[in-house]
TrEMBL record:
InterPro entries: TfoX-like, TfoX_C. Residues 9-84 form the TfoX C-terminal domain. This is TfoX C-terminal domain-containing protein.
């Protein structure tokens, strides 16, 4: 984890609490900038690979964090796209 211990910026993002921050850092995503650059799908894929209990709501949470909105305010079109992506991983 390249310097993750010194970055606490993830929790400054909407929807990102300490627990999801801990999981993101465990898969090498250490900052808000890294999460935004990777995108919600890649971040979710990394989380899903490491943590089997990660679910669709986590994917919505990540996208909401990137878009600066509450995850339950994501447009329906975005939710459909993310759900389709999540379903393909099963």
């Amino acid at each position: 984890m390249k310097g993750c211990d010194f970055v606490a910026e993830l929790t400054s993002m909407r929807n990102i609490g300490r627990e999801i921050e801990k999981k993101l850092k465990a898969v090498g995503i250490c900052s808000a900038e890294e999460l935004s650059q990777l995108g919600s799908k890649e971040a979710f894929l990394r989380l899903k690979t490491r943590f089997s209990n990660v679910c669709l709501v986590h994917l919505y949470t990540l996208q909401g964090a990137i878009d600066h909105i509450e995850y339950n305010q994501l447009p329906d079109e975005v939710k459909r796209d993310l759900k389709s992506f999540s379903d393909e991983l099963k």
